[in-house]
Amino acid sequence: LISRAFRRQFIIPEFQEFCKDIEEIYWKCKDNTDGKVASYIPQLKRMSPNYWGVSICTIDGQRFSVGDVAIPFTIQSCSKPLTYGIALDLLGSDVVHQYVGQEPSGRNFNELILDHNKKPHNPMINAGAILICALLKTIVGPEMSLAEKFDFIMNFFERLAGNEDLGFNNAVFLSERECADRNYALGFYMREHKCFPVNSRFKECMDFYFQCCSIEVTCDQLSVIGSTLANGGICPLTEEKVLKPESVRDVLSLMHSCGMYDYSGQFAFKVGVPTKSGVSGALLVVIPNVMGICLWSPPLDSLGNSCRGVQFCEELIKKFNFHRY
Ligand code: DON
């Protein structure tokens, strides 16, 4: 018991009570039938709008889940903070930010724009994430095959998730690649402006980006990934140091300012905790030094964020003072 206390077991002392409140908010949000499931690829369109899961993992390893928490979904843009974190860890912030900025774009996630330096605005939007994938491909070593690079990243994601086996949805990958006119347009636009690191293989970089989006997780697994970020890069379940604290700080800063598409400013104002959304309906919420939360429900609002997920965050902050300020 004492050793658990030292390991911050009591980070939320009344965890059972807290979970009751979480469950209450869960049921309140379940009634929300707003939004539309993403329909740009059939595999996402087929997702039931009724799915709704909430999972929590605290930095001392306490867990709570309610709803559809064991159904795999593709991680989509929630992969962006993770690939960014890995790139920071391997290359350092200075190198990474020679290629990608730190400003919110103030536009949609797939908008055909670069910043005034002709760099992607930040790593949380498609352009920036594609470039991060290009960087990862070069740093992992030009001698490695695409398959080995994928394994390397998958292994990193799994370590962030406490050594859980994650999935890969090949149908989503193939569909993403098939319906990727805008992402290719972004890629070509960046290639025109010499944004890519030298020796990047364009097609491989694009494929690698689609593959990262097609990794499958459950709500439970993504909450553990969130808790590793909340815990400065050390996974609370395995106690492995997966990312450096300085990398995690950069990741959380940009999740805070750019993680919720063109709702990021309002979200940072109202909810005030670093969060990243994905088109499959996931929200990866990090409450630094406390816990990771995954919210998953496919119906999205007009900006692309999960309706139930956003409502949950707003209700959570009304009840508990997790807002950073
Ligand atoms: O690039 C795409 O269109 C998707 N595979 C990822 C989209 C997503 O989740 C929105 N991201 N910022």
From TrEMBL:
Coiled-coil annotated spans: none
Any single biological process term in GO: L-glutamine catabolic process
A single MF term (Gene Ontology): glutaminase activity
Superkingdom per UniProt: Eukaryota
Enzyme class: hydrolase
Keyword set, alphabetical order: ANK repeat, Hydrolase, Repeat
Chemical reaction(s) catalysed: L-glutamine + H2O = L-glutamate + NH4(+)
EC number(s) from the headed UniProt entry: 3.5.1.2
Family that this chain belongs to: Belongs to the glutaminase family.
Subunit structure, as described in the record: Homotetramer.
Protein name: glutaminase
Organism in which the protein naturally occurs: Sitophilus oryzae
Whole-protein coverage range: 152 to 476 of 608
